[in-house]
Amino acid sequence: MKLAGHTILITGGASGIGLALTEAFAQRGNRVIVVGRDERKLNQLTERLPDTAAIVCDLGVEQQVDELVARLAADFPELNVLINNAGIQHIDDWTTDSAACLSPRIAREIAVNLTTPAQLTAKLLPLLSRHEEAAVVNVSSGLGLVPKQSAPIYCATKAAIHSFSIALRYQLEPTSVRVFEIIPPVVDTEMTRGRGRGKITPEALAASFMRSWQRNRYEVPIGKVKLLKALNRLVPALAANILRKG
Predict the structure, then answer these.
(1) Which residues does the UniProt record annotate as the domain Ketoreductase (predicted)?
(2) Which 3 state secondary structure label does DSSP give 41?
């Protein structure tokens, strides 16, 4: 993929991994459209990167997602890259707090992490496929390969995104749309505050991905996930024990 000249939609692009990807692509001469719920963060982003467009949208609400798709088709027909980055993670103990675990937030976690990325991809494919060079980029997680016990829904959705990316890549092989998957380790973001050790920065993740993007390496394990993949293949029980406590 070329480094410049794309029009890119990044969900959750105003903070964390999404912000680092926004900056990396914007700095290389791409038009970036950022989607998020927090209007304040979006305004701060566009003040700092005035060539970036921002759209307020709650990705957990289907009607707002449909409105987003309609606006993109009308205002950004040149859109050729979709980056499904937005995600949420709840830490739950189903043995002691089952009422909270079974509350509507499960549906929201699944919607934001899995249902909406799939729906956005399906609804934007006709737009993306008009272009000679196009891509869908899904951000999954090392926890989608080997789960931890404290976030069962998050891990399940990221495992699904991993499988979705592979299957979608197979289907789109005859088309101009390439399918990338970023598989991060623990990244130092608001989501992981107070959790995990040995975190990498979002900027380091973005820099690593840009190298794979340019070389058309479609599955992109970042940092320690490279070791995790090898360990899970060779000694899966050890990989499970390492990741279990998160």
Answers:
(1) 6-189
(2) helix
Specify burial of residue 30 (Cβ count, 10 A radius: 0-12, 13-18, 19+).
Answer: buried
Domain count for the chain: 1
φ/ψ (deg, to 5) at 40: -65, -45
In which domain, by residue range, is 71 found? 7-244
158: enclosing H helix or E strand = helix 152-172
Instruction: Report if residue 188 sits inside a domain.
Output: yes
pLDDT, residue 100, reads 61
Report field, pTM of the whole predicted structure over 0.90 = yes
Q: Quick check: 72 and 127 in contact, CB under 8 A?
A: yes
Please report, for the domain that includes residue 44, its CATH number. Answer: 3.40.50.720
Question: Among all residues, which ones are annotated catalytic?
Answer: 154
Q: How far is residue 39's CA from residue 54's CA, in Å, rounded to a whole number?
A: 9
Residue range 13-54, pLDDT digits in tens: 999 999 999 999 999 999 999 999 999 999 999 999 999 999
Reported as a single tens digit per residue, the pLDDT across 94-111 is 888 766 666 788 999 999
